[in-house]
Structures are given as structure tokens and as C-alpha cells.
Amino acid sequence: MLNYVRLAKTVTDLMPEVMVEQLKSDAFDLTENTRLTFRSLFTSFQLQNKHKPTTGEWASPMCPNEDTEIGVGDDVKRWRFILTELKNHSKISEESFVALEKVLANVFIRSEKLFESYSFVSKYQKIMTGTFEANDYDFYLQKVKHEIIPETFEINIRRHYQMIMQEISVSKVLDQMMTHCRLSIEDRRHIEHHVKQTEQNKALLDIIIDRNRSTFNIFIDALRESGYDDIAELLSCDLEDITVDTRTAQMEGLSAWTVPLHKVRLQKNYVDIISTIKHEAIVDHLISCELLTIDDQQIIEACPAQTEKNRKLMDRLLHCGEKCFMEFLNALRSDDIYADLANQIEQTDVTSIDIATLQGCYTKM
Fold first, then answer.
1. With respect to CATH, is domain 253-363 assigned 2.130.10.10?
2. So where are the chain's domains?
3. How far is 199 from 168, CA to CA, in rounded Å?
4. Could you check whether 152-236 and 253-363 share the same CATH topology?
5. Residue 141 and residue 92 in contact, taking contact as beta carbons nearer than 8 Å
6. pLDDT in tens, the chain (365 residues)
7. Is the pTM of this model over 0.70?
């Protein structure tokens, strides 16, 4: 526990000081509001792209070689590696502590040579020999837990953030991402309650950054499907191979509440539904079954284009229960044109991964 506290204090308190001085010396624009968090500083080094690691890769499960990888970028990677170790292990063995202590000592020796007026080594030695209060262990456990290690896809988004904010219109992108169960209807509401296009784009990007690489990959596919091939190409190039999201998606691993099957089936057919149907008879049928109201109908009709009317209808369907879903299928089957679509929806295969993926949209809210 003492080993943990000493390492955690070093990487959360002292290492940020070193990294800020390095960025300042590079004339990197650190605003007054820049938080001295791992996420903001690590992202700054990647965006600046001046101190590339020796291997050329920012993300790696291995600590850089102490003999051959000794650049500033390598030391940033060491910071990441040790923080990851602390996140994954709440206790640090004596053997691991000795090895990591030596790694950090070398980092501060190199840093002090670059910035001679700073006594990083003595500060580090004070941490390694100092005493701590009984509650420091819990304090640093929580501090490490809340430090966010960004994946490389986040850096690519942030590198092109302003361009994406200005150039894309999200409606079709959202359609595709909902079809792949990477966004929930609540996500869509959250995004579309913003009036300005740039604000909607920002809300979408914030959600993608907060989730995982597979969501980002679907976002790239959605951009291509929506005609934004150039942006998709920019975002997908030069991505590093890093550890794939390893969270299991088994049914027994889900929480007590799981996304209903009918909701998954609707979302997996989202694009086909909104691009195919005429809503009037369907809405009338659902009103006659007392599953939609006249107010719902007026909200749907207020949308200017047919696709938008269909999106609004889907918004209502995804907030209704299974009875509403079954009556929606009955309404489709009442018109021979939509019979195949109704069968397609009803027979859509739903896996535990689909459920876990969509549920992840809700648990991340």
C-alpha cells in the first residue's frame, strides 16, 4: 500500500509538473484553463507531435526500453504505462515497485538535465522517503481511478475536431449509428435538442470520445455512408494498433436491466425503416390502439420532410413497450408493400453483443 501511494503521488502530482514545463519550453499553447490531468497533457503531446516515441507509437502495453528509448516521447509513454499499472493493480509488490522506482528516477534525471533550474530529482526522492497519512492510500486509489487514459482514436478526433464540427450534418450519421446500436434514442435526443449544427456535432463527438474504439469505427463507416469520405479517410489514417476493447458481452454479464429485444430489432433496422415507410396509416393505427396520441401525431406531422417524420415516429416507438412494437408490425403488414419489411424486423437476429452494445449507450449517459 505504501508502494502504491508513492508511485501514485509521483505520477499524479510530480509528473504533471515535468510535462507542463516540457510543453511550455516547446511554446505549446497551454491555456490558463488547461487542467493538469493526464488526459489533457498526454493529448497535448500527441497533438503537438514533436516528441514522437522512438518506436513511433504512443500506445503500447510495454514500458519503453531503458537503454534505447530515452526521448521525451518515450518518457510520456512511461508515464502512461505506470498509470495503467496503478489502475490495474491496487497493490504493488516490492519487486514491481523497485523496477518502477528506477524507471521514474531515470525520467526525472533526464528532465532535470533539460530544465536545470528545477529540482525534480529531489522532489521525487522526498516522495520516495516520505511518510504518509493512513487515508492517503484510499485518496490516491481514487485519484488514479479518475485519471483518464485517452485512446489514440480520441487524438485523431481532436486533431480534426474543428473541421468535423463545421462540415458534417449529423442526421444521416445518427441513422447509421443507431442501426448499428452504437447510439440509443436517448443519445439522439440529447444530440438533437441542440439547435445549431456545430453544437449537435460537438455533442456527437463527445459521446464517441467517451465510449470506445468500436463506436469510433462505426462512426467512420457512418461518415462514409453519409458521403463524408474525405473526413472518414482523415480520421482512419495513421491509427495505431492498441489493445482492443476486451469487455465481454455475455448475457450473464449484463446488469439486472437489459435492453428489450424489440428495441434492438427496431434499431438494427433503423435506416431501412426511416428510408422506406409512409407514416400516416401507421400513426393512425397506433392512435386507434391508444398507443400514440393526437399530440404525437401533430409532432410527427410538424416535421418538414418524410424522413424526418419517420425519425420522429421511430423516436416514439423506441420509447414505447413491446405492445406498441407488435402493433407497428401489424400496421406494416396491413400494407402489402411493407410486409417484407415487417418480417425482416421481426426476424432480425439479436445477439448478447447487440444487447450489451446498446445497453452501453445507456450506462454511459
1. no
2. 2-145, 152-236, 253-363
3. 11
4. yes
5. no
6. 999 999 999 999 999 999 999 998 888 877 654 557 888 888 888 878 788 899 888 777 789 999 999 999 999 999 999 999 999 999 899 999 999 999 999 999 999 888 877 789 999 999 999 989 989 999 999 999 999 888 778 888 888 888 888 889 899 999 999 999 999 999 999 999 999 988 999 999 999 988 888 899 999 999 999 999 989 998 887 555 433 333 333 333 333 456 789 999 999 999 999 999 999 999 999 999 999 999 999 999 999 999 999 999 999 999 888 899 999 999 999 999 999 999 999 999 998 888 888 887 876 55
7. no
- Between CA 354 and CA 259 the distance in angstroms is 9
- Alpha-carbon gap, residue 75 to 47, rounded angstroms: 16
State the DSSP code for 239. Answer: P
Distances (CA, A) of 257 to 253, 263, 317: 11, 13, 19
The CATH code of domain 152-236 reads 1.10.533.10
